[in-house]
Structure formats: C-alpha cells, structure tokens
Design a protein that fits this description.
The complex is a heterotrimer of chains A (333), B (284) and C (443). Chain A is mainly alpha-helical. Chain A is built from 17 helices and 3 strands. A two-stranded antiparallel ribbon of chain A has the order 2-3. The relative contact order of chain A is 0.11. In chain C, strand 10, helix 5 and strand 11 form a beta-alpha-beta unit. Classes of the chains: A mainly alpha (333), B alpha+beta (284), C alpha/beta (443).
Chain lengths: 333, 284, 443
C-alpha cells in the first residue's frame, strides 16, 4: 500500500446525485418543450434560447470571476437552467438586447447579489422575466403566431394569447360563448398550437418533461399537483357559479404559463419550501394568486407574479412548518 | 384643493402630537435608571465583545466594573493599560496593571517532523477531527491544522502557515482574549507572559507519552528526559507526566535550557542568533 | 406490501459480497489485545496482572458500576502487560495484552457441538449469566445486554424484537449467523423471552436475505411465540426505533427507550451469545466478523477471538488490495474509518469493509441548493440542512430547539446530499456540544 489511507467520519458511501446532474436533468426535461417550440416558432426559438443561455452563463462567469473573486462554478449548470427558463418565458420575436438585459437582471440581481446558487430568495428567471415584463410591456406582450412565423425573428406577425383574448373580450362585454370561437380548440391548446411565450405553449411536452423529472427524483409531486388542484378547484367554482363570464377550469390549466410555472419554476430548489406540508401551502398560495390575477387582476396571466409572491413567504413557511418529528406525538401525550 | 392641503396638515400634526404624547408617557413609565458611568466606561472598552473577560460582551463588563467594589479581579485582556487607567479615573477605583499576555502555540509538529500517517477527509474543523480520531499526523496530542483557532480569533491575530500546517500568532495583534485557548480541542494554545521584544522560550509540545512513543510520533516531541530541568538555574522548569514545562513568570530568558534539549522541543523566538551558531554559519 | 418504517430512509447499494461464504473459524492469533472498554459505560476493572497465566474464557476484568460488563480472556496464555494500546480512533486506551499458548478452556464451559434446547434457568439466572458472560449488543452499539433485560421498575414489556435486519451495506455476519446457527438463535430468543417475561417475539429480517427468512420460518414452527417477519429493504431499518415502528407500529417517544412502548430489541448475535452463556456457560470471547469489499479477493465471514488484530483478518481474506483507500470498522454507513490495521477486533466489530481509493474520498462540497432531500430522507423527521449551520456557527440553542439530540447519526442526510455537504459531521459535533450544555445546565 503505497498511498495513505483516508480517514473520515461516517458515512463512507454516497449517493450518486450531484448538483450538476440535477441541473442538467432539468435541462433534459425541457427538451420536448423546446422541440415543440422549434416546430411552431422556428428560428426565433433558436435565437432567443441561444442568446439567453449564453448571456446568463456569461454574466455568472464574469460576476464570479471579477466581482466576487471566487472560482467560477458555471459548469454546475444552474446558470444554464436559468437561461433556458428565461428564454422559455419570452416571446420568440424578442430583440437580442432586451434578452441580454433580462439575463443580467436574472443572474446579477436575482441570483448573484444574494450570494449565488442556493441563496437566492426569488426564482432568478422569473425576476428577469418580470423585470422585462414591466420595463418592456409592448415587446413582452406581442407574441408571434405559431407555424406562420417560423422563418421570421423580430419581424414576425404577432397576436394575442388565448388568455389575453378572453381577458380583453370579457372586459369589452363580449360573452364567453363568442370568445371561445376566437381561440384555438382544446387539443391545439394542449399540444401547443397557439400564440404564447416560447416555452409555455405545449402543456403536453412540459408535462412529459415533468414526469421525467419526477422519475429521476429531481422534483417531488407536491408543488405541481397542489398548484394544478388549486387552480382547477378555484376556477371550477367560479365557472359553476357563472359559466358566461368565466372560462372553464380545463382551459385555465392548459393555457398560459401555468404548466411551465408549476412544474419548472415553482419547484426551483432554493425558492421553494423544504417540507411536503410547506410545499402544499406554497402551491395552494400560488394557485390562488394566479387565478385571482387572471380573473380579477389587470394582467391576463399571473403565474410569475404568484410564484414570486409566494417565494417571499418561503422563509416564513420553513420557519413554522416543520416535519413531524419521530416520537413527537407520543411525547405530547 | 386648498381644503385638502389644510386638512392634511391638521390631521398629520394632530397624529404627530398624539404619538409624541404617548411616546413621552411610555418613556416616563418604563424608564430604567442606569448608572451613567456604565456608558462612560463602555466607551473606553474595545467593543469587540470577545468574551475574554468571562462576561457576555463589553456592556456586561462595564456594568460589572461599575457595580464591583474591588475591581482588581476584573480584567479586560484586550484593553490597553492606558484605557484601564482612564476607567479607574472614571470610577475612582484602583486597577491593578495586568501583566500583558500573548497566545503561544505549543506544537512544532510540521509534516517533516511528524509524517502523515493517513488523510483526513471530513469537514474541515479541528473539533470534528479531534472527536473522530488522532489526526493526520501520528501524534494524538498535536495540532490538527484545521484552523479552529483561526476561526475563533476576532482580532485576525492567528493564521495557518500553509508550509508548516501550524497556526502562527501575530504578537502585535494578539490581545490574549483567550478565545483560541478555549477553541483548541487539543489545548495546545497557552497564554504566556509577554516579554520585551516579544522574546519567548517555551516547550513546543504537550504530549505526555513515554519518551520512546513520543519520539516515534514526532521528531520534535518533548521526551521527558529532564535535561532542561537540570540546566535551569531559576527552578522555572518542571517535569510532570513525561512533559517539561517552563514557567513563564520564573523564566529569566537565560537560554540555558534550549541547547540541552535533545529533540529541539524548546523553542527560542525573537532572540539574536547565538554566538556559537553565528560562528558556525560564518565558517560555512 | 411488506412492512417497513414509514418516514425517510435511503437505499444504498447492498454490496453483500460475502453473503455466500460460510462462517470460517479463524486460527487463534499469537498475541491478543483485549481492550478494557468494549462497551458503552464504565471500563471494566482488570483482575489479572502481568505474568499471570489465564485460560480461555477466564474473567480478566470485572464490571465496574451498573452500566458496565465483564471482560474475558479469549485465549489461553500469559499476560504480557496491562497497558494503553491503540483503539480504533488511534487514541490509547487501557488493554490487556496476552501471549497465546495452547488453547485450554476454563472449567465449566461446555465446548461441545450439541445444541442444548432444554431451558432450566429462571429469569434471574439468565440475567446474571448475561452479565457474567460479558454480553453486549452485538449489532455494533455494544450496550451491556443485562441492563436491557432488567426492566426498570414499573415498566413492562409485552413483545421482544429480534434484529436480523442487517441494513448496513456489505455486512453479512448476521445473515450467515441466522443461516448456520438457527437453532441456537431460537433457543437464545426463548431465553430472552423468559428473562423479559414476554410470550411473543418477532424476528425482523430484510427481504434481501430470502434464504435466512425461509430457514428461520421453517425453524420457528418448533418454537412457541416466535414469528419471522420479512421487511422491505430500506436503510436504517436496523435502528432500534425504526425497527419497532416497522414491526409493531409503535413510536418510541423522543428521548425515550423501547421499553416505554412495551418492547425490547436485541440483535440476533446477542441472542446466540445469550444461548451460549446460559446453556453452555460460555462467555463472549469470539464473534462473527465480515471482511469484505469490492476489491477483496475472498470476501469472508470469520468467527474470530476478541483481540485479534484487524490485519490478521484482512490477510485471511486474501490480503489488502493495492488500491485500498479506506478501511472501515463496521458498515459503510455508520462504521468508523481506521487509521491503523493493528487495532484489535472488539465485541462491537461487526465487519471490516475495505473501500477502494477511487471511492474513498468525498464529493467536492458546494453550496446548499436547498433541495430538501436531507429532510425527505431523515428517518427521525429532522431538518439536517438547518442543523448543520446551527452547529457550524455555534447556534447551540437553535440546534437544541430543532431536536438535534433526536439524531441517531444514521448518515442518510450526508449520503443523499447532492452538494456533498458534511451534514452529519457537524450534526455530530452539535449533538455532543448540546448534550454537554444540557448536562451543565442540570448541575
């Protein structure tokens, strides 16, 4: 034995998970949604994703190297995940410089200013998205049409998302039955044939990726399921009370950024609660706020605001919602 | 329009007045009478809250100083003697001039003296390694080199030397607050009397093994041979449990003991080079 | 669905390389080093001195205090010295060193192979013989067994649980014991039942040992009150509290003992040792040790005398592979890494696991990503992600508030952490500091 033996405290064997694997797992899970987007939006998808990922990774590298003066850790893939998720939240006709600003806000403000990986209280991609949404409302709410704009980037013909059609229609006093005719059918909505942000269009592809993440134990089911259930129940009750002025619950589930948000954004490790009970509270909160914004608020879509708002409750949830300790109930009699 | 302005001003002023009255009443009712000297004394203290005095923070120490009749037992290891003199003026009480102390690391087991027998791969803290086993070097008493003392020092006075793997104290910055002494799980660090020009002579070893075992563990271990005890003319060196100890108060820094030590376990720091050694160097 | 405990747990690779190797009796070594503290509690007091002749099975150190037990000579020979010798941490502890001669057993010990199934001893005699024979929990915790058999006043047990789970990866000593010494085990269990005055006993065995389960089910027909229960494979099922929850769905209160919910847990090895002590008068001087590892030539299960150097065992199993990175005393999840192979086998040594150098080092440590996996796997319902910084930065009151003392150091959190954080290292530090603080507060 020429080498010295190692001594360390137990355990001496380790699971094969690491942060890099988990982060790349999220990226793999997003591939189906990305492919659907390439099919419907073509070249714009490729450009927006490339710019977003490159600038997110680049900003993280530069900030770690020159501002924080630490060893850059971009290879762990967390910046790339932020980049992909940010791109997924943008229309595919977004000018490049807006994307770069979004990436800077996402990484610089949303993540690194809190100390980097694991320390950020808010989902960085959503911080970037909401910043852009408020700063550039026109660009952020003009979505290119599916299929027709495959070969166009910023000059694509644009339209409104189904949620916006319904919101504006109802505000103008058009009855629900007429509005339904203006939006694509449920099957199209489900597979992603609609106006919308790059990655949010196909509920089907996003759910497939979600199942992949569940099977690899990257995420647990609590947050997505609690969000879906809450949205379904809340909109269902509204729809039962007044089907003329409210969209039905299935429509709410498969349109907008709900699936993308519930499966990929709300489940972000650092910004979600640590215990299953806490995750339920978190998910229900997101569901309620999302529906409230969609139905009563000024914006047609509210999932990103809902997630950010609930992100701010996470420390509180973690403090007060504890797992049940073994032997606890017996102790209390 | 002007109505709104006037009403606003009146309302806000009324609220302000009401709040002021409530605050005044509360302050009156819950007023705690404190000796004003506590604040004065606290200002003189270093505000490091290091706990070196044995009390939780400088405020508590100031209170103790004001309260006590005889303050000679209360010592702030950090404050300069001038600051303590000012405090004694404030309080009108006598303060004994404390002898300045400095932290000394009593281990010289560098990797070449104490070869590594294994690799430690746990969390980098001496307290954890010490609870687990004897450490990377063979000696079960020596420095673990993971820097718990560096971690607890609030004055940036102790640092690990990457070459020797041992901590080094910067004498000018050390305030003898005792934090590292408590923080070291192996009790290697000792507070010793500060001599002029920061000179010190001490046994850089704390192992109590028998000579043969100790020498096997580390080439510069004290083997308890007692030669230094015989060499000392001031009865400053005692030998107990196979370990020599130089009393810093009795020691006159005569340097008679160090050359006697067969393992070079007695260190002389900040002394001029010995004549015979200097000559030897010239000859080389 | 087969039973298991409901909360937390992990499933490390089982790696039971030695499961198929029958128990081999290892030659008595030339010198044995028998530490005086091989159990939890006060070290035993030596009753021999340098130069004394001792026989195999003779008492060489007597129990001192209530939580303590006897130590016997495992060989026949001359006491060379009573001195401090290296223990498994590298620190020096008092031990008796004996040079071996011809193997003569002390009088009264039945060394015959026949299995004595007639139980004549009463409860008190069983407990007394357990103490006399120096029996401790052989699962690895080494708590003196006679204490677990003498129930505190006012407490009553109604069921005995026998731990044949062996949830640690690699280890197979209990597995082989159940296969090869089933009848002795059954009689031992009946002795334990008699000592505790209970009529029911469950043997919990994880499902990765189907041969042992089948064998014991077959045997249990002949013994009244003993039921064999297969359990789903999940670490740490062999932990006392988890095993009780899995088998009889009772939850031991935080800070409590199994007897608080009317049960007592003993390891299968302990049951066999009790059989030998009561029926054969044979003290605990040997035990079964698994010597295994991915790169070992002959992963084996040895019956060895207490005090045999670990090096002898490794040599008998084909020698230390060249690429050895770590030698673990015990299982890979809770065992202790050795820094020397010259330490002796003690009563608590259930296995020696050799880990190749490629697997010996830990993952690089990165930021906590708050993935909550540690919370999910903690079988005690704790939050390791919170306890580690509490201990790292000395927030002892927070650590106490978050029930750090409930941690049983199973290592599931460190095992699962994708960031490679040393969660358990700091939690262990926190536990010892917090219990010190609590003790000083009581005074």
């Amino acid at each position: 034995m020429d080498k010295l033996i190692t001594v360390s405290p137990s355990p001496h064997v380790y699971g094969d998970d690491n942060v890099k694997k988990l982060m790349y797992g999220v990226i793999y899970a997003l591939i189906p949604a990305f492919l659907v987007s390439v099919y419907f939006f073509g070249i714009g998808t490729l450009i927006v994703t490339a710019i977003s990922v490159v600038s997110c990774v680049g900003f993280e590298y530069l900030i770690q190297k020159y501002l924080m003066k630490t060893e850059p850790s971009v290879s762990d893939g967390s910046a790339a995940v932020t980049g992909v998720l940010l791109a997924m939240n943008l229309p595919t006709n977004m000018p490049w410089w807006i994307i770069v600003i979004g990436a800077l806000v996402a990484i610089g403000v949303g993540k690194m200013s809190f100390g980097g990986l694991g320390n950020n209280p808010f989902n960085p991609a959503l911080v970037g998205r909401v910043f852009l949404f408020i700063s550039f409302p026109v660009q952020m709410t003009s979505w290119p049409g599916p299929i027709v704009s495959r070969l166009q980037y910023t000059d694509a013909a644009t339209g409104a998302t189904p949620l916006a059609v319904i919101k504006e229609g109802l505000a103008a006093g058009v009855p629900m039955s007429r509005l339904v005719e203006q939006i694509p059918g449920y099957l199209d909505l489900f597979i992603g044939h609609l106006h919308g942000s790059m990655g949010e269009i196909s509920a089907l592809a996003l759910l497939a990726g979600g199942i992949y993440m569940l099977s690899r134990k990257i995420i647990t089911w609590h947050i997505p399921v609690s969000i879906f259930l809450t949205v379904f129940l809340f909109t269902g009750i509204l729809w039962l009370i007044n089907p003329y002025d409210n969209a039905d619950p299935v429509f709410h589930l498969i349109t907008g950024g709900l699936v993308l948000g519930a499966v990929y954004m709300a489940t972000d490790y650092a910004t979600s609660p640590m215990t299953p009970k806490g995750m339920w509270i978190f998910g229900i909160g997101i569901g309620v706020i999302t529906v409230a914004i969609r139905v009563y608020g000024a914006y047609p879509e509210g999932i990103s605001f809902a997630i950010l708002i609930m992100n701010s409750f996470v420390p509180l949830i973690n403090k007060y919602v504890k797992p049940k300790r073994f032997g606890e109930e017996v102790k209390n009699g | 329009m002007s109505d709104i302005v006037i009403y606003s001003i009146i309302t806000v002023s009324a609220m302000g007045a009401a709040a002021a009255i409530i605050l005044f009443m509360v302050a009156k009712k819950f007023n705690v009478v404190e000796d004003p000297r506590i604040d004065l004394v606290e200002e003189e203290l270093p505000a490091a809250n290091c706990g070196g005095c044995g009390l939780p923070g400088c405020r508590a120490f100031a209170e103790a100083l004001v309260k006590a009749d005889d303050i000679s037992g209360l010592k702030c290891p950090v404050s300069s003697s001038e600051a303590m003199a000012r405090i004694s003026v404030i309080l009108g009480k006598e303060i004994a001039d404390p002898e300045p102390l400095v932290a000394v690391v009593r281990c010289a087991g560098t990797p070449e003296h104490r070869p590594r027998t294994n690799l430690y791969d746990g969390a980098p803290a001496c307290s954890i390694a010490s609870a687990l086993y004897t450490g990377e070097g063979g000696c079960p008493h020596g420095c673990l080199g993971l820097g718990d003392c560096v971690e607890v020092c609030r004055f940036d006075a102790i640092h690990m030397n990457p070459e020797t793997g041992l901590p080094e104290v910067t004498d000018e910055l050390c305030t003898a607050c005792n934090a590292c002494v408590v923080g070291c799980p192996r009790n290697i660090i000792e507070l010793r009397k500060k001599n002029k020009k920061d000179r010190k002579i001490y046994v850089a070893c704390i192992n109590e093994e028998k000579g043969g075992v100790a020498r096997k563990n580390c080439k510069v271990a004290c083997i308890g041979c007692g030669k230094c005890v015989k060499a000392c003319k001031f009865d400053a060196i005692t030998l107990e449990n196979n370990l020599a100890y130089i009393d810093p108060v009795k020691c006159k820094l005569c340097r008679k003991c160090a050359p006697e030590c067969p393992t070079n376990a007695i260190l002389e720091i900040n002394f001029p080079v010995r004549r015979e050694k200097a000559e030897a160097q010239v000859q080389d | 669905m087969i039973q298991t405990f409901p909360r937390g747990g992990v499933h490390p690779a089982e790696d039971k390389f030695a499961a198929g190797s029958p128990i081999k009796t290892l030659k008595v070594p030339e010198t044995v080093v028998i530490p005086l503290s091989q159990h939890i509690g006060a070290p035993a007091e030596p009753v021999v001195k340098k130069g004394d002749e001792v026989k195999t099975g003779q008492v060489i150190a007597k129990s001192k205090g209530f939580v303590s037990t006897n130590i016997h000579s495992s060989v026949t020979g001359t006491v060379r010295k009573i001195d401090s010798e290296l223990d498994s941490s590298g620190y020096k502890r008092a031990a008796v060193v004996i040079d071996t001669g011809e193997d003569n057993w002390a009088e009264g010990i039945d060394t015959g192979k026949t299995i004595n199934k007639d139980i004549t001893a009463g409860a008190d005699e069983i407990i007394r013989k357990t103490l006399d024979a120096g029996i401790v929990g052989l699962g690895g915790a080494t708590f003196p067994s006679h204490i677990k058999l003498s129930l505190p006043k006012g407490k009553k047990a109604d069921v005995l649980i026998i731990n044949g789970v062996e949830c640690e990866p690699c280890l197979t000593s209990d597995h082989r014991l159940m296969l090869e010494r089933g009848d002795e085990l059954m009689v031992g269990i009946q002795l334990l039942m008699k000592a505790l005055n209970v009529t029911r006993a469950f043997i919990g065995i994880e499902n990765n040992k189907p041969d042992a389960i089948a064998h014991l089910i077959k045997l249990s027909v002949n013994y009244e009150g003993i039921t064999v229960k297969p359990l789903r494979i999940k670490y740490p099922q062999g932990a006392e509290k988890q095993l009780i929850k899995a088998l009889i769905n009772r939850e031991v209160p935080s800070g409590g003992l199994p007897v608080d919910v009317g049960t007592v847990v003993h390891n299968v090895g302990t049951a066999v040792a009790v059989y030998e002590a009561v029926q054969k008068n044979k003290p605990l001087i040997e035990r079964i040790v698994t010597v295994t590892g991915r790169e070992m030539k002959e992963p084996s299960n040895f019956l060895v005398r207490i005090g045999t150097p670990v090096r002898t065992l490794i040599d008998a199993a084909g020698g230390l592979p060249d690429n050895t990175g770590k030698v673990v005393n015990g299982g890979p999840m809770m065992g202790k890494a050795l820094n020397s192979l010259d330490v002796p086998v003690t009563k608590g040594t259930s296995g020696i696991v050799i880990i190749p150098s490629a697997e010996a080092s830990r993952k690089p440590v990165v930021n906590c990503v708050r993935c909550a996996k540690c919370v999910t796997v903690c079988p005690m319902g704790l939050e390791p992600y919170l306890l580690m910084p509490a201990a790292e930065f000395g927030k002892w009151d927070l650590a106490e508030e978050e029930s750090i003392l409930d941690c049983m150091e199973c290592g599931s959190c460190s095992y699962i952490c994708p960031s490679g954080r040393p969660l358990l290292d700091y939690i262990r530090l926190g536990k010892s500091t917090v219990s010190k603080i609590i003790r000083s507060r009581k005074q």
